[in-house]
Write a structure and sequence with these properties.
The protein contains 7 helices and no strands. The chain is mostly helical. The longest helix is centred in the first third of the chain and has 25 residues. The two termini are 42 Å apart.
């Protein structure tokens, strides 16, 4: 039994105790309502931790603190998640357009019809290989890419018996093709 399953079980037990004390508070003594509150809070925090939401919320809060300094740095800088994503993509695009290789070809992401095989920005996987990994022909539509990705994820996800390395390759392939 893994740690998260154990935490979820304990959270259920604490939630049951809190619910029972809450019901008894209305039939017996309102003091039990105060006693049930710590059990309810404990159950909630255990559930948040076991599902990973607590850690994700803490990471988002920390990222928000880090971007506060960026937002104060200049106008147009956003503290929202969408603003951060837009800035990150714009910066990646500027780097990709600005960088030239020795052969004179741009280090930019290849388009859907491009079969040169140059790596997509930030993924390290050539576009041609990404299409092959998802079982698509070059130039497939965005909808086809998304459908193929979802099917391949279902097959390769480690939680459903798939191979972790294959799952990582599928994710890299989708990252390489999703913004084309």
């Amino acid at each position: 039994m893994d740690r998260d399953t154990l935490l979820l079980g304990l959270a259920a037990v604490f939630a049951g105790i809190a619910a029972l004390m809450g019901v008894l508070a209305f039939t017996d003594s309102l003091f039990l309502l105060l006693v049930s509150l710590p059990f309810g809070v404990t159950a909630y925090l255990m559930w948040e931790h076991a599902t990973g939401r607590l850690a994700r919320r803490l990471r988002e809060r920390e990222a928000g603190r880090r971007t506060t300094a960026d937002a104060e740095a200049g106008p147009g800088a956003s503290r929202s998640r969408l603003g951060r994503e837009a800035r990150r993509r714009a910066e990646a695009g500027r780097r990709a357009r600005g960088g030239r290789r020795a052969g004179g070809t741009a280090n930019a992401r290849a388009g859907p019809g491009d079969t040169r095989g140059s790596p997509a920005a930030g993924t390290g996987m050539p576009v041609r290989e990404a299409y092959r990994e998802l079982g698509l022909s070059p130039g497939a539509s965005r909808g086809d890419v998304k459908r193929a990705y979802r099917e391949r994820v279902k097959e390769t996800h480690p939680d459903s018996g798939g191979d972790e390395e294959a799952f990582k390759r599928v994710n890299r392939a989708y990252d390489a093709l999703r913004d084309d």
